[in-house]
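haha ok so turns out i had the wrong file open the whole time. this is the CORRECT one, sorry everyone. sequence first:
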Amino acid sequence: MKAVIIEDEALSAKRLDKLVKESLPSIEVIAILESVNQALAWFNENTYPDLIFLDIQLNDGTGFEILKKLDGYPHIIFTTAYEQYALDAFKFNSIDYLLKPIDKSELINAYDKLEQIHRTEESAYHDKIEALSKHFLPTFRERFLVKVGMQFKSIATQDIAYFYYDDGLSYLQTNNQCLPIDYTLDQLINELNPKEFFRINRQFIVSLNAVKEIHSYFNSRLLLTLEPNTDTEVVVSRERVLSFKLWAGQ
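then structure:
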């Protein structure tokens, strides 16, 4: 059986690939894809695999956006870091999932359950996935409330050029001010529209409108010029370069 992993976090993808090799030797992982755009491009050029390990939230959209454009579904095992309200949707629709960080025994159980579902309920499988997708319709933050001195100020997301992390704190940058914000970058990336914002490395999430220049950089990375300008170099990490190019060219 051939499988594809669709996961935007490189470490999570590598860990899952290793677990599959160790726990399910009959499965061959033939590709690891990190974004909606990259996955759709791959499926357009390759024969569908027998199985997809599919992350729900990707840098440039959701896994369901990929499924909607496929001509029929392969076997699917969802991977997710969502909270309980979303996990209830999986249970209600009898679709199995793997909660990150993924455990080896849970991986084996999910695969066994999937085989049983396809033997006994294959005709209803597509309907269940379609119903499940409605629980994950994307909603994105339109404003952020930040504290300025003794007051609070509401900042429209469309006015934010980028977010960055420095010395233990997160900040948002507009055209004329930099303000601390009470979110981690991991939290922020799930609140932002992936068509407008992209996490280029561990320190920066950038708006497409803020990217003014893109230059080749050593070690197969990219160097960005942002507006407003920054005091430090802004570099797209090597493992995110392909997804960034697809995002910037959308």
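The chain has two domains: 2-136, 143-248.
again sry for the mixup
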